[in-house]
């Protein structure tokens, strides 16, 4: 390879999977510095957006599920086709102790924000097997007297990753501040490895489930209610200007049922899904434009409840759906639901979310 011009070597490396490139760092010092270069990492990620699903097993370990290498085979029970894919356990060889994972809180550019059973939070890269523990916020409310929600994303202007927390007092446990209804917002900078306080959220986040922020267009989104009339709205926190904006609900959704709905992202677009919406998925086709909400009916789905998780790479018609009993792949054209059989995976698991393979490091930023 040394006889090839550097630009040819770089072009070849751009085409390789992130996991392979991680191993090739040890080939030589020039390769190490090239593959570790922030611009190389960014360009490689843009050219190789391979999506994976992340699972949390009943034994609190993590598994990566390939949702792009799908193989079909006949189901002898119903004469239809099932789909199979492979799961691989995610390990962190340099961590000297066992981490019992509890929940996935978000992902961005190949980095995953995860919480363990002791409520410590970590930034991990499942592809490179790197892990970094995020320090506790000095501004955090007492854990046993409050609720907290997280969000994770990237500010392209400062090239920095941020963890966002929104916390508020638990009315039933809070004896010292019974009238405190503020929604406290803190932000962590990966580059600075430090926390800071921001202005309180103007929205009421004590609303439905304590879900993590949904990342779309450098904004983190939560279902909230607008004070004082408590109308259901989508609060969007900008990672660029560090302020909240508002995205309105579709006209035809019953506003009073907002507490039963959930925000998700499918195909890079903000979506609303929920038990009270039937098998309907609301998709915001043009971000921030209320009139661009469209309703998609998911016909022929027999499992209930079900939740869209992601679209299959290379297809805008195949959607991966999950429920309490397993995972299916749904085609919106022929309305077929095919079971997804997992090879090499755990017997029991919870669906954590998705991430893309990348070389981005949780230990530092450019």
From TrEMBL:
**InterPro entries, per the entry:** F-box-assoc_dom_typ1 (IPR006527), F-box-assoc_interact_dom (IPR017451), F-box-like_dom_sf (IPR036047), F-box_dom (IPR001810), SCF_F-box_component (IPR050796)
User: Per UniProt, what is one Pfam family of this protein?
Assistant: F-box
Record-linked CDD domains = F-box_AtFBW1-like
Q: What sequence ranges are listed for the domain F-box?
A: 1-44
Query: Could you tell me which NCBIfam families the record lists for this protein?
Result: F_box_assoc_1 (TIGR01640)
Stated name of the protein: F-box domain-containing protein
């Amino acid at each position: 390879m040394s006889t090839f011009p550097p630009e040819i070597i770089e072009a070849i490396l751009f085409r390789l999977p992130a996991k392979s490139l991680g191993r090739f760092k040890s080939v030589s010092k020039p390769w190490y510095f090239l593959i570790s270069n922030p611009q190389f990492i960014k360009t490689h990620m843009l050219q190789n957006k391979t999506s994976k699903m992340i699972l949390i097993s009943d034994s609190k370990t993590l598994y990566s599920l390939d949702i792009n290498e799908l193989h079909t085979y006949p189901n002898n029970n119903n004469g239809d086709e099932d789909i199979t894919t492979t799961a691989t356990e995610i390990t962190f060889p340099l961590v000297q102790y066992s981490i019992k994972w509890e929940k996935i809180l978000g992902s961005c550019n190949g980095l995953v924000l995860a919480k363990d059973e002791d409520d410590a939070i970590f930034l991990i890269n499942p592809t490179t097997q790197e892990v970094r523990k995020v320090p506790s916020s000095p501004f955090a409310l007492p854990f046993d007297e409050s609720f907290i929600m997280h969000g994770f994303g990237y500010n392209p202007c400062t090239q920095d990753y941020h963890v966002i927390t929104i916390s508020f007092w638990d009315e039933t446990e809070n004896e010292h501040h019974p009238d405190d209804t503020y929604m406290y917002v803190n932000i962590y900078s990966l580059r600075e490895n430090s926390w800071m306080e921001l202005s309180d959220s103007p929205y009421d986040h004590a609303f439905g489930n304590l879900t993590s922020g949904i990342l779309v267009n450098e904004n983190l989104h939560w279902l909230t209610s607008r004070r004082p009339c408590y109308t259901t709205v989508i609060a969007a926190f900008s990672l660029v200007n560090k302020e909240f904006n508002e995205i309105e609900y579709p006209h035809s959704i019953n506003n009073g049922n907002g507490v039963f709905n959930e925000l998700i992202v499918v195909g890079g677009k903000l979506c609303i899904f929920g038990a009270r919406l039937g098998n309907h998925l609301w998709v915001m086709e043009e971000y921030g434009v209320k009139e661009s909400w469209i309703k998609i009916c998911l016909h022929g789905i027999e499992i209930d409840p079900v939740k869209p998780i992601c679209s299959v790479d290379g297809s805008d018609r195949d959607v991966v759906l999950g429920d309490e009993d397993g995972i299916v792949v749904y085609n919106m054209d022929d309305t077929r639901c095919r079971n997804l059989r997992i090879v090499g995976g755990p017997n029991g698991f919870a669906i954590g979310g998705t991430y893309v393979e990348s070389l981005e490091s949780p230990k530092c930023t450019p």
